[in-house]
Design goal:
Blueprint lengths: L9 E2 L13 E6 L4 E11 L6 E5 H22 L9
Bound molecules: zinc ion (ZN).
The site of zinc ion has 6 residues, from helix 1.
């Protein structure tokens, strides 16, 4: 498997990404949790509710995981379970 760079374009923004930034690379992003290097800006959406996210791949993962978690909880509520998120 050969891995070609998606883009050589570098994004200097550290927040406020939009459609024009998709596919660019953030060379360095400092957060309270740590410093991220060479992250791609990606565009993802939730298949359950249609919410959309544009931002660093790390945050996109959190977006998708967060929605998955929420919708699983909602699904359990529909099934009349009163114990919240248990799995
Ligand atoms: Zn969702």
């Amino acid at each position: 498997m050969t891995q070609e760079p998606v883009s050589d374009e570098v994004c200097t923004k550290t927040e406020g990404w939009d459609h024009d930034d998709i596919g660019k690379r953030i060379e360095k992003r400092v957060t309270a949790n740590g410093t991220y290097y060479n992250e791609l800006i990606v565009n993802v959406f939730c298949q359950m509710c249609g919410a959309e996210f544009i931002g660093p791949s790390r945050e996109a993962g959190g977006f998708l995981g967060g929605h998955e978690c929420l919708h699983a909880w909602e699904f359990n509520q529909v099934l009349s379970r009163d114990d919240g998120l248990t799995e």
